[in-house]
Amino acid sequence: MKRLQALTFDLDDTLWDNRGVMQRTEHGHYAWLSQCLDAWQQTQGGEPLQLAERLGLADYQSRRLQLAQTHALRRGDFTWLRERALAEQLQTLKLPRSSAIMWAAAAMDEFRRLRLEVTPHPEVAPLLACLGQRFKLAAITNGNIHLARLPFASHFNVMIAAGEMLAPKPDPRPFLAALARMGVAPSAALHVGDSWCDDVLPAQRLGMQVAWIAPLQAPPLRLPSGVHRLAHVSDLPALIERLAPMSRSGVTTTDPGAATRYPPLPA
Ligand SMILES: [Mg+2]
């Protein structure tokens, strides 16, 4: 392995627990659209559309799946799929096309607002600040969170929404794009992520080191060369201390017990 120069990070379920946020966002922006649209219809002297009652989330989700199958290149561009599916639903309820497009876009603004209500693990901000002093940092996500509005966005040299570049992980292109923009070879980089299929395998195949933030229920696995299993992102400093020891990296651990659990490798 070359000297470690860069780290790339998955976001959802790596830097925060994503489950509650997605559920609140899914229900929240849809309820907002249904209610606000009916209130607006009433001000216009029209009948309420009753979107949630007449079509509902299941139909919305089904249309997204259908669109993803029909437009395979867009399958990872979740913002496009959602906005298009909402506009389709509204036109099905006989809202004029221009209004449907406008209301679908407004609902996605609400989606983006709710999607940002993530709670990063408390170690994340100081960890990124510390690592950023030594390494180039990139974020690579399949999600559609508004990257530039993340509270710690300034720590990343590069941020890539892989779905919006029509190459969601495990496609290697978002990894290669991040590494190219940082000017770092794969063998000098470590990817940090929770998904075996979308993070571990593609990064490992490119020759990157990988820190796998293994889900609690993940069974014991024989790990490929260069893959390191961690329970939590807070264990990352200890791994980096093994790969790029403190005396060279200048990285300090946020976990006082970490050095004991992950003693430096012998020279
Ligand atoms: Mg993830």
Automatic annotation (TrEMBL):
GO terms for molecular function: hydrolase activity. Keywords: Hydrolase, Magnesium. The keyword Hydrolase applies. The keyword Hydrolase applies. Its cofactor is Mg(2+). SUPFAM superfamilies: HAD-like (SSF56784). GO terms for biological process: riboflavin biosynthetic process. Transmembrane segments: none annotated. Residues 247-267 are annotated as: Disordered. InterPro entries: HAD-like_hydrolase, HAD-like_sf, HAD-SF_hydro_IA, HAD_sf. This is HAD family hydrolase. It comes from Vreelandella rituensis.
